[in-house]
Amino acid sequence: MRADLYTAPFLFLLGAAFTYGGWTMDRLEIRQIHPASIPGLVPMLLGVALAIAAIVLFVQARNRQTAETAPEGTKDTTPGSLRDLAKAAALCCIYALGLVGNIPFGIATALFITCFVIAFEADPPKGRAHLIKVAVIAIALGILVAAAMSILFRYAFLVRLP
């Protein structure tokens, strides 16, 4: 918790630096290239996303700090954070090293998102109906997000996908 409180401002500054660096990159209008394909667009978007994530991290760390000072029995503990980290890291490595480049990008992304949602949302003790509901939502989300990402990168960012 204390590490999160100290890390969040650093990540926010890093995100702000990415955003500023992307904003100040040279534009390509001189070469008659579409303005949406500016080289700094992705760093700017990543910088904004990192700054937002840093704010969320800071707020959550402050809330946990407040919860720790709450009376016993009202604390919210989250077991298995290392297990969740390992699951997320494994899924990301499988996606980046095994799927992307070996199968079409849209299919790889849909599989990754579907598996990620199922891995973190499925709760077998809640019964079969819950698992079916989670699987249906995960498949729909995987297909929709993969299609949106493919369209965005192909037509808005003009990036050829593997």
Pick out its properties.
single chain, 162 residues, mainly alpha, 2 domains, 5 helices
Protein model, in words:
The chain has 162 residues and is mainly α. It folds into 2 domains: 1-77; 79-162, no CATH class. Helices cover 72% and strands 0% of the residues. It is built from 5 helices and no strands. The protein has helices spanning 2-24, 41-68, 81-99, 105-121, 128-156. The protein is flat and about 60 Å long. The mean pLDDT is 85.
Number of strands: 0
Strand content: under 5%
**Unreliable runs:** none
N- to C-terminal distance: 39 Å
Element-by-element helix/strand order: HHHHH
Helical proportion, percent range: over 70%
Q: Overall mean pLDDT score? A: 85
Coarse morphology:
flat
Number of folding domains?
2
Radius of gyration: 20 Å
Structural class: mainly alpha
Number of helices: 5
Q: State the major sheet.
A: none
Offer a concise description of the structure.
This protein is mainly α. The chain has helices at 2-24, 41-68, 81-99, 105-121, 128-156.
Secondary-structure map:
Elements: H1 2-24, H2 41-68, H3 81-99, H4 105-121, H5 128-156
Helix pairs in contact: 1-2, 3-4, 4-5
